[in-house]
Specification:
Elements: H1 3-6, H2 13-16, E1 52-62, E2 68-74, E3 77-83, H3 93-104, E4 111-115, H4 119-130, E5 134-139, H5 169-188, E6 196-205, E7 232-234, E8 245-254, H6 256-269, E9 273-276, H7 282-286, E10 292-295, H8 301-304, E11 311-320, E12 328-333, E13 339-345, E14 348-351, E15 356-357, H9 366-380
Parallel strand pairs: 3-10, 4-5, 4-10, 5-9, 6-12
Antiparallel strand pairs: 1-11, 2-3, 6-8, 7-8, 11-14, 11-15, 12-13, 13-14
This protein binds flavin-adenine dinucleotide (FAD).
Length: about 425
């Protein structure tokens, strides 16, 4: 069968996979009247089995009722919970850390223990340090051995987070603050030091007006935080994908290993202490010297705090040899409703993603691995190569080429 006929609609692909997480705002900006634009030139991605370098597995800490962010008591201590961030723990961590600070401040003490060293734990520790707290992180594992290191790591603040019918006004308010603070903070971290960056994402599709799938969280994010506000539809001949259209938008993204190591360094540089320790019971926590304890143990809260609502959503990524020249993400939904996707990072080109609810195994699922790589081979091998001698495109080419005089500052008088 012609692969083109296999491609249905890719625009909802990221959302459907829990990758995009939030809906694109407004109708696509496509005008039947406008003349075709030159084709964007994208470096071809080389997907083949002999370029596979590893497959990683992480268990997202999901709760149907959303993350838990509230103050409690543990004997005489203030215990603050901050866990259960599902597929959004890289996206929401800074804001959740601010909210933890708001809950801690009234205690009037300046010494805190943070339990857990993933993205929520590290960001919470930094937010407390910024308020003048003396912070110790206690954790059974530290980067690179956390769920956060196994993340696909886009700014996906609503991904796999809460069942719509479980939302409450109080939870929504916490979520919005978390999403806003985090979005702003991550923007300020863009650059090689933290491994945070903006990237063009293309959804290859035969439908220029795809309907968003799944979710029910459409109004969760305030308008200015929605990805896809700058989305534009590239028509036939304007993009290299084997589909009629490609919907392009900018996304904020994170390289987990660069980012988490940088947070650890910052935490230590600001006087933090890091203790490797696993807690088996609340009693052990109550014996800590710090008067404030922040629980950022993610899925660890299932046994440590007996939160039976926590459920793992297993996610699996396969990575290929990095290609620095590939500076875009792309995805498409195929006829069998599975996806082909690539996400280029300096530690490898991520192929695919997955969501297996209720699966605790950390072993790669061979069937998913095969499907992700085979789909990517089938789809991306059909991309048109860039025209010889042309520059690769990062963003839209100028509509009209500037006159050569512009580059030499020649005025009309010359
Ligand atoms: C494949 C995949 C793709 C993802 N994509 C995205 C994405 O695009 N965007 C996004 O925002 N999020 C994404 N996520 C989700 C994100 O990675 C998680 O929400 C986040 O990592 C959860 O952080 P955490 O702190 O809860 O868990 P972890 O990072 O695992 O940290 C938990 C910490 O608690 C410690 N701990 C646990 N129990 C104990 C105990 N009993 N005693 C001592 N220490 C303990 C652990 O050792 C660890 O240090 C993805 C996840 C996966 C797996």
């Amino acid at each position: 069968m012609d692969r083109r006929t296999m491609v249905k609609s890719g625009a909802a692909a990221l959302v459907g996979m829990g990758l995009g997480g939030c809906r694109a705002a407004g109708p696509p900006r496509v005008s039947a009247a406008r003349p075709p634009r030159p084709r964007v030139n994208l470096a071809p991605v080389r997907v083949s089995w002999d370029r596979v370098i590893r497959t990683t597995v992480g268990l997202r800490p999901h709760r149907d009722g959303g993350f838990v962010l509230r103050a409690d008591k543990l004997d005489e201590k203030l215990l603050i919970h901050n866990y259960g961030h599902g597929g959004a723990g890289m996206s929401l961590a800074w804001g959740c850390g601010t909210l933890v600070g708001d809950l801690a401040d009234p205690a009037g003490v300046r010494r805190a223990a943070v339990i857990g060293c993933g993205s929520p734990g590290l960001s919470t520790a930094r937010q407390l340090q910024r308020r003048g707290y003396d912070v110790t992180i206690y954790a059974a594992t530290v980067p690179p051995d956390t769920t956060s290191n196994m993340s696909w790591a886009g700014y996906t603040p609503t991904s796999g987070l809460i069942e719509p019918e479980r939302r409450t006004p109080a939870w929504d308010a916490q979520f919005r603050t978390a999403a806003e603070v985090s979005y702003r903070q991550l923007q300020l971290m863009v650059g090689p030091r933290y491994g945070v960056y903006w990237i063009d994402s293309y959804n290859a599709t035969d439908d220029p007006n795809p309907r968003p799938r799944g979710g029910g969280d459409g109004d969760l994010l305030p308008e200015p935080l929605r990805t896809g506000r700058d989305r534009e539809v590239l028509g036939p001949g304007e993009h290299p994908f084997p589909t009629q259209y490609a919907i392009r938008q900018s996304n904020l993204a994170i390289e987990p290993s660069i980012y988490l190591d940088a947070l650890v360094r910052d935490f230590l540089a600001f006087g933090g202490r890091l203790v490797i320790r696993r807690f088996e019971s609340r009693r052990e926590l109550a014996a800590l010297p710090e008067p404030v304890i922040v629980n950022c143990t993610g899925l660890g809260s299932f046994s440590l705090f007996d939160d039976q609502e926590l459920v793992p959503v297993k996610g699996q990524l396969t990575l290929l040899v990095p290609q620095p020249e590939v500076n875009y993400r792309a995805s498409a939904r195929l006829a069998d409703d599975s996806n082909a996707s690539i996400n280029p990072r300096s530690d490898g080109i991520v192929v695919g993603n997955s969501q297996e609810r209720g699966v605790w195994s950390m072993e790669p699922n061979e069937e998913i691995r095969k499907r992700n790589v085979d789909n990517a081979i089938a789809f991306f091998s059909r991309m048109a190569p860039p025209a010889p001698g042309t520059r690769l495109t990062r963003s839209e080419a100028p509509r009209v080429a500037p006159a050569v005089e512009r580059f030499f500052d020649w005025s009309d008088a010359h």
